[in-house]
Amino acid sequence: MAVTDGKGPWPALPALPDAATDAVLASGLLPELAHAFGGPFHFLLPEAFDANLRAMHDVLAAAGVDGFVYFAKKANKAAVFVERAAAGGAGVDVASTGELREALGHGVRGEHLVVTGPAKDPGLLRLAVQQGALIAVDALDELDALVTVALTGRVRPARVLLRCLPPAQPHSRFGMTGAELATAVERCVQAGDAVRMEGFSFHLSGYALQPRADLAGHLVELCLKARVQGLEASRISIGGGLPISYTDADSWHTFLTRHHSRYYHAGKAFGTGDFYPYHSPNAGPDALAALLATRPEGHGRPLAELLKDAGVVLLLEPGRALLDRAGATVFRVQGVKDRDGYQLLTVDGTSLSLSEQWFDSEYLPDPYLLSQDATTGPAADAASAAPAGVHPASVGAATCLESDMLTWRKVGFPRRPRTGDLLVYPNTAGYQMDSNESPFHDLPLPPKVVVDRTDRPRPRWRLDRHLT
Ligand SMILES: *Cc1c(COP(=O)(O)O)cnc(C)c1O
């Protein structure tokens, strides 16, 4: 794209090419839906979820590792992803009674649930035991409460994983220290038939592979020790945190090098360390393959071999990585203001539909600009743009908060955005679209539209939940 600020190309973060998203953009469906809903909406591409899940199963099979995938439900509230998890042979990771109910109601068997989260309330523990769900126990008092529930219920034993406080993240509020784990193992032995101790778990912040491999290696050792005490200890859960790539390596590295507050509305200053790593050399299923091939500290062999030799099943709880390319978010431009060298757009929704904005950070992938009357895709739209070059614009919300910006960054659009245009934020299914949504200002929550059969000239759509 053209040089516009005398300092090099305008920083751009184009989404990785995706045939299904392109097909939807080119189909003419989005302006029609924008008209129908009269406000922002999300579209979901469940076929991408299916493909991501299959790819993870393939990686496990290729490595000869016995494993099981749980979809971390908090990453998206749609019903369709839970249905696809159930249909694709995956379980679901839930952390509240509401999530557990949703998972069961959309076809996931109780035995295929893992219940995570700290200090789970007794009602959730009771349901989890009744349904035969695996429960990741976060603290000693929670283990005691669970034993009580299992003893009073007398239906079936509580299936337990013991969650480990990562030694590399000693300030985490989750998990148990080494000493607490030893006590917990002891209490599981004492609990007898009330508890089935199936192994250990962790969930690490960050996306690095080596610390995950190291801790997984450590948990395998803990399993072997616990077996000596007569416990089953046959599986470990490595949580989530498989990174995904939103953009290509070049764009990401150029962006990081050229990062400067002049590219943001109001000179907003983000640190590059505040951003999600929008490109990873190993992403999604490849990250899982790389993890299995990584040698945990203190071991001469890769994690995959360690697991096989110990007869330990690998559980994983990916959220974001299963939702890669599985949805996007559409806003309509309601107004355009000219500022010094850029435009300020106001769209018909809020940054509560783009959750990254609420973590001292910004959702960086470039939104697509679509004409309201577009019947062709973004490429054709860009080609018809009058002056060649870059038209920088930041994106604000239809609210009265100064800080409610969907994009502080001045995105370099291929033409001047106009009132009535649509902005399509790509790849928002993982956390962005709904984890922070709220009917602030009495604005309705954006509906979710499930789109499939994107290989046909006219993709098929329906609402994720039927109106009641
Ligand atoms: C959030 C969470 C996950 C999912 O993490 P991703 O980064 O989306 O893969 C998995 N397990 C636990 C315990 C979590 O809290």
UniProtKB/TrEMBL annotation:
Residue ranges annotated for the Orn/DAP/Arg decarboxylase 2 N-terminal domain, each copy included: 54-254
Lyase as UniProt keyword: yes
Pfam families given in the database record: Orn_Arg_deC_N
SUPFAM superfamilies assigned to the protein according to its UniProt record, in alphabetical order: Alanine racemase C-terminal domain-like, PLP-binding barrel
Coiled-coil region list: none
Gene3D superfamilies documented for this protein: Alanine racemase, Lyase, Ornithine Decarboxylase, Chain A, domain 1
Keywords per UniProt: Decarboxylase, Lyase, Pyridoxal phosphate
Cofactor: pyridoxal 5'-phosphate
Entry-linked InterPro entries: Ala_racemase/Decarboxylase_C, De-COase2_N, De-COase2_pyr-phos_BS, Orn/DAP/Arg_de-COase, PLP-binding_barrel, Y4yA-like
Protein name, entry field: Y4yA family PLP-dependent enzyme
